[in-house]
User: Which sequence fits this backbone?
């Protein structure tokens, strides 16, 4: 169990720049709220452009030394950071639950998941191999070496306030880059706790910097336009991602974008129904449906449609909703009232156009930003919920007759992040997996995220990959060396 000393150590109400805990130059601060209760849990600096520019400059200065360290030195510091995160996992999880609302058990899971990227890239740093290419002439050698991109910026969302930082920053730091992190307005405390542990791990000043702000536009503009920033990594909405891409174009930055999703969850008539229901519950209701890879549209064969819908409704109705800090809670609140309003608007639109509510369909009696787990049937493509990312605990179930129809429904969106399907027919598995326009596909699995596999999407769901052996390359430049006069 965490001690009061753990909480005092990790609870920070200041930015972290160049190894120092600082306030905004303007002196402005903003409040961090607990979405389950609405209470103020902290006040942090409300930074602007000048603060961010200063952080970028410090990161650039630190890059000159950090990029010259050996991979073994970087690996050892990252490994120590990993160990410290695991040692303080309970205290970090409690902080996370208080600021983003997810059940405590899920927060503990995220701490371990997020830490896994630090561990992985502490090891992967040693494997940034180059090449010796056979030359066309006897007096030449062709060498390829990899070197760090430079100063990187990371703009992260509130729904995974730890893992989205480590998934971006661990490979950057492993590669020899320095980073400036702008965490989501709603969840700065987890990021600041990570900074405290990075300092304890021996991370040199200026390598890992955290700038907090209530309005992301001003800070984001600096992080996407500043000439000293050579790489930007963003996780968030497609609209904001497109803006950042435009802003980064003038300085031709390297970019990684993990944007919106509209994940289909297809259940074929030969699916193992028990496993499909378990997968649906795990995929849909993680973080109260507030993840970019949550099942967004359930597409179910007509022969098993009624059984799947009824069983999913029964399981959904039985879920325990409440404050994430309470024992046994399976669903916490949505992040704020605006999120509730969006979910309710999508449900109301569907019902007005003929959808049937099997369970839920309304804000929860607990009030605040709690919403009932909801299952809708009799859906059609004219409903807004067929095209928009829900980001809430709502399961819209569509019906299909043929494999081709299921694939067409699944692909009928500009997004292509994650998809799921259940079938026991091996030929169908290969055919459908090939036909789906998604960067990640769960086949008879509802949870697919791991540090070992490449995370990323196709189409308007983004570009680049995070995690896995591919994640390190996102922060490395490939340099060709032609050595002549050797004969």
Assistant:
């Amino acid at each position: 169990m965490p001690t009061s000393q753990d909480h005092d150590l990790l609870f920070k109400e200041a930015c972290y720049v160049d190894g120092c805990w600082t306030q905004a130059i303007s002196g402005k601060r903003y409040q961090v709220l607990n979405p389950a209760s609405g209470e103020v849990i902290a006040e942090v600096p409300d930074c602007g452009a000048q603060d961010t520019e200063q952080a970028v400059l410090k990161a650039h200065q630190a890059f000159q030394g950090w990029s010259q360290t050996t991979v073994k030195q970087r690996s050892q510091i990252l490994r120590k950071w990993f160990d410290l995160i695991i040692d303080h996992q309970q205290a970090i999880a409690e902080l996370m639950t208080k600021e983003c609302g997810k059940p405590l058990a899920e927060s503990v899971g995220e701490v371990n998941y997020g830490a896994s990227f630090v561990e992985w890239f502490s090891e992967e740093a040693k494997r940034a191999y180059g090449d010796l290419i056979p030359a066309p002439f006897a007096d030449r050698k062709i060498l390829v070496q990899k070197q760090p991109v430079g100063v990187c910026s990371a703009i992260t969302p509130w729904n995974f306030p730890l893992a989205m930082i480590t998934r971006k920053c661990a490979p950057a730091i492993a590669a020899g880059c320095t980073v400036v992190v702008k965490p989501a307005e709603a969840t700065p405390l987890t990021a600041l706790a990570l900074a405290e542990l990075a300092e304890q791990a021996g991370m040199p000043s200026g390598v890992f910097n955290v700038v907090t702000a209530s309005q992301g536009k001003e800070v984001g503009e600096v992080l996407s336009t500043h000439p000293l920033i050579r790489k930007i990594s963003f996780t968030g909405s497609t609209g904001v991602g497109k803006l950042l891409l435009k802003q980064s174009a003038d300085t031709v930055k390297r970019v990684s974008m993990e944007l919106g999703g509209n994940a289909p969850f297809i259940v074929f008539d030969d699916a193992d129904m028990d496993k499909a229901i378990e997968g649906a519950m795990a995929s849909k209701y993680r973080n109260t449906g507030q993840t970019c890879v949550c099942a967004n549209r359930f597409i179910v064969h007509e022969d098993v449609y009624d059984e799947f819908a009824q069983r999913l409704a029964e399981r959904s109705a039985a879920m325990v909703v409440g404050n994430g800090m309470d024992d046994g809670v399976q669903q916490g609140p949505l992040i704020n009232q605006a999120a509730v309003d969006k979910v309710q608007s999508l449900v109301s639109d569907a019902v007005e156009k003929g959808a049937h509510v099997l369970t839920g369909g309304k804000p929860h009696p607990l009030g605040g930003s709690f919403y009932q787990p909801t299952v809708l049937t009799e859906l059609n493509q004219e409903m807004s919920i067929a095209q928009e990312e829900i980001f809430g605990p709502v399961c819209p179930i569509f019906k299909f007759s043929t494999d081709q129809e299921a694939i067409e429904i699944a692909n009928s969106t500009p997004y292509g992040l994650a998809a799921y399907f259940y079938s026991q027919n091996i030929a169908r598995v290969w055919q459908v997996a090939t036909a789906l326009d998604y960067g990640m596909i769960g086949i008879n699995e509802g949870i697919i995220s791991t540090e070992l596999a490449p995370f990323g999407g196709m189409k308007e769901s983004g570009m680049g990959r995070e995690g896995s052996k591919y994640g390190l390359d996102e922060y490395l430049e490939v340099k060709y060396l032609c050595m002549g006069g050797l004969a």
